[in-house]
Design a protein that fits this description.
The chain is of the alpha+beta class and about 375 residues long. The chain is about 20% helix and about 25% strand. Helix 6 links the parallel strand 18 and strand 19 (about 345-350). The longest helix has 18 residues, at about 245-260. Mean pLDDT is about 90; it is low at about 1-25. This is Esterase.
């Protein structure tokens, strides 16, 4: 676990939020439209067909207004200029990567959220969000198809002396056909996020709905819970201990889900996956508990080596992915080694994305059809 602690997380997160591509010689097309994740009725922030973002903030008495993009503002800042009627306006210096991005506004040194945008939990706080339309966004779009249900559950946790929260996606028809039981994927968020991330930022429920409607996957249940990672400050991951969360997941949440939902409560029909820090958790727990999970997936969350796994017969799938702006060679080479060792291993690299949700949305789209195959 030590090799996947501070070095892994820092490299993955910092490498993903590089500065915008410099496109100073490209004329900006004035076809800006409100972001799809704006507050109802709000005109700003806006995005255009090239991937630029434009912001407008009301701060009549301010001396400085800066929009900081990316997890913790690591992707760079856009300084706004004072306009009329107390508004500050500005456009990013270049096109942003397609997909979802966090951001916040710094007004005279104070950090605030943009009143025009919806908020999403990231950087251990609720941050503003913006969507840059992706050329392949159809797979996570809201469509007129049968929809599953995402419900909040509260499950008892003796180890933490409290009730803990999880979100459970059940497929369309789950509540109609009560004779059917389903495999389960336990899906973990990254550092700074929580159990809301995969459905809010990741749109995993819509991806599932669309793929089920298209006949590309067999229905399964998805369970998302808090990975207990955010008590560790950024940069301090070396001190993170997996045991408390491992207990919550394997001894409390899984038995609760198997008791209260129609699951196929077998190792062969149970998977675990996670993005970034959640990938590190996934790797550690699946290695520690091979009797519980048979399908493993790390999304921008490290790699498995053949020698990491104690019992090859327990593993039905290993899926490794990342963005092309991360470390794709590491993922590809790891899968080559796993295949040579006799594992069913698959790699996927998301083109033109970094350590961000379009990478993980695309990764989930590639992973889902591989899970629980006969």
């Amino acid at each position: 676990m030590k090799q996947y602690s501070i070095v892994l997380v820092l490299v993955f997160i910092l490498s993903s939020y590089l500065s915008f591509a410099q496109t100073s010689q490209t004329a900006i097309i004035e076809d800006f439209k409100p972001s799809s994740v704006n507050q109802p009725g709000q005109e700003y922030p806006q995005v255009n067909s090239q991937g630029y973002a434009r912001f407008r903030i009301s701060a009549p008495e301010a001396q400085s207004v800066v929009v900081s993009l990316g997890l913790g503002g690591a992707k760079g800042g856009t300084t706004l200029a004072k306009a009329e009627n107390g508004f500050w306006m500005g456009t990013t210096a270049g096109a942003m990567d397609e997909g979802f991005h966090y951001y916040h506004v710094t007004v005279d040194g104070g950090i605030f959220n943009d009143p025009g945008a919806l908020n999403f939990y990231g950087s251990t706080r609720w941050e503003s969000g913006i969507e840059i339309p992706a050329h392949d966004q159809d797979f996570y779009a809201l469509k007129d198809v049968p929809h599953g249900n995402v419900q909040q559950i509260l499950f008892p946790s003796k180890s933490t002396n409290t009730s803990r929260r999880a979100y459970v996606y059940t497929p369309p028809n789950y509540h109609k056909d009560k004779s059917k039981s389903y495999p389960v994927l336990y899906l973990q968020h990254g550092w700074g996020e929580d159990e809301t991330a995969w459905s809010n930022q990741g749109r995993v429920n819509l991806i599932m709905d669309n793929m089920i409607a298209e006949g590309k996957i067999k229905p399964f249940i998805v369970v998302m819970t808090y990975g207990m990672t955010n008590e560790i400050k950024f940069g301090g991951m070396a001190s993170f201990k997996i045991e408390p969360f491992q207990t919550v997941l394997t001894e409390e949440l899984i038995p609760y889900v198997d008791t209260n939902f129609r699951t196929i409560a077998k190792q062969t029909h149970r998977a675990m996956a996670g993005l970034s820090m959640g990938g590190m958790e996934t790797k550690t727990i699946t290695i520690n508990k091979p009797e519980i999970f048979s399908h493993y997936a790390l999304l921008s969350g490290g790699i498995y080596k053949p020698e990491d796994i104690k019992d090859k017969s327990k593993v039905k799938l290993i899926f490794l992915s990342c963005g092309s702006k991360e470390r794709p060679d590491g993922v590809k080479n790891a899968v080559i080694a796993l295949k040579e060792a006799g594992y069913n291993a698959v790699s996927y690299v998301s083109e033109n994305t970094a350590h961000e949700f379009l990478t993980w949305r695309r990764s989930f789209k590639e992973l889902a059809p591989l899970l629980f195959k006969e």
